[in-house]
Amino acid sequence: MAVLATPVVNITFGAGSNFGSPLSAATTNYQYVPSTCPVNGFYTLLNKGVECNYGWHVLQSDHTGNAGGYFMLVDASFEPSDFYLDTVKSLCENTTYEFAAWMLNIKMVTQGTRPNITFSIETENGEILQTYNSGDIPVEQSIQWIQYGFYFSTPANVSTIVLRMKNNAPGGDGNDLALDDITFKPCGELITAAINGNTTNTVDICEGNTSVYTYSAVLSAGYQSPVYQWQLSNNKDFTWNDITNANAITYQRTPTDAGDFWYRFTVVDANAVNVKTCRIASNPIIINVHPMPIVDAGPDRNLLTGTSAILIAKAEGEQLVYSWSPGNYISNATILTPTVSPIQDIIYTLTSTSLYGCTNSADVFVKVVTGIYIPSAFTPNGDGKNDVWKIPFLDPAYNATVNIFNRFGQLVYHAAGTVISWNGRFHGIEQAVGTSVYMVTFKTGNLKLKKKFIL
């Protein structure tokens, strides 16, 4: 059974804003004009049309629906002539190809001449390999792109052909057309690839999954001296790269990091092994390795008995759902920032699960205290003992402001809504031993603590 492979030539005319550049690889007997309304004997490349008072369709995109994609818009000359001529290289000898192109009668009123195109495939010395006539391209009241195409075969020692498109009807009234997506697809024997033991060729797994998958290919008995090659694409079918030493009918995939991995099996006869465009490819096998969620349960918290706090967790991943455990003394165990009010020390675990079942967890420790202990002295002498003045259970969520004044009344330390830690220095200068004063002010409850302590 013969099948069509991936296009080895795909002429889309590019994409962008406003107008495309004049044809460079191909030639034409028409003149280029950067206008949405070319006149007889002119053409343009653009991504959408406007009302030209010619009775034309107003296109908003190219043939594929890409709003930025260009198509070729032709207003036929008065005399029949070639409006598109291109040399196509790097084909394979002794190979059958499908040529195809999408066309549209741009005129939507029945009056006037209808486009009629002859396609011709020729050798470089003018020998005609195949021709095909579109017949009159019909008038449609809505936009209806039509694909025209045919098969041809390259002779021995011929890898370059000339594509010719001739406009057979006279211009002047009608005979206006749009052209897009010219393709050449090699025709080869059917190849199928599958994952052993799987009913589908698309697999979704999580990062860290250690499963090993074995792929197998089945091909028709139509190749004289087949050469096999497995390929990999990391960007969803846009670029295929040969996998080193993957030249057997089977291939074993080992675990990878997160990413989307597309695999396919290709075959070519030995006489064309160095020409990648001669290969026939199988259907793709897709392995989507989804990343584990990134989970942060937030900073540890200190609570005074009888109070509550909001846990400040963060998580990143694919459509995550959340679950806190245990579910005791928590306002909502399915959100990132629940309010908790435990009566004793507790560790809460946040588990985040993605759409594809990938999970990750993180813990937060909540300490419950009966009061806030403020040290009355410390000795910042560098001996590793009591070198830093701290208020250990002053949770940043209390939004307390802490000020320390030296014996001269000078402010030597200030902190607000953060962890308290003072090393006994002011602007890097060690403060003299003596009595200092701390003042702790809470924004809620108008509570203020003030007391002397020894430095």
Structure description:
There is one protein chain. The chain folds into four domains: 2-188, Galactose-binding domain-like (Jelly Rolls), CATH 2.60.120.260; 190-290, Immunoglobulins (Immunoglobulin-like); 294-369, Immunoglobulin-like (Sandwich); 389-454. It has strands at 2-4, 9-11, 31-32, 42-46, 71-75, 81-88, 96-105, 116-122, 128-136, 146-153, 161-167, 176-189, 191-195, 202-206, 213-219, 226-233, 241-242, 250-253, 259-269, 280-281, 285-290, 294-296, 301-304, 309-310, 314-316, 321-325, 339-340, 346-353, 359-369, 389-390, 401-405, 411-416, 421-422, 425-426, 429-430, 435-441, 448-454. By secondary structure, the chain is mostly beta strands. The mean pLDDT is 89. 28% of the residues are buried. Helix content is 0%, strand content 44%. The protein is elongated, with a radius of gyration of 37 Å.
- Helices, by number, come to 0
CATH architecture of the largest domain: Sandwich
Mean pLDDT rating: 89
Instruction: Identify the overall geometry.
Output: elongated
Proportion in helices: under 10%
The main pleated sheet reads as: 8 strands, mixed
- Strand-residue proportion: 35-45%
Radius of gyration: 37 Å
Low-confidence stretches: none
Amino-to-carboxy terminus distance? 91 Å
Q: So, the CATH homologous superfamily of the largest domain?
A: Galactose-binding domain-like
Q: Structural class, please?
A: mainly beta
Q: Give a count of the beta strands, DSSP E runs of length 2 or more.
A: 37
**And the CATH topology of the largest domain?**
Jelly Rolls
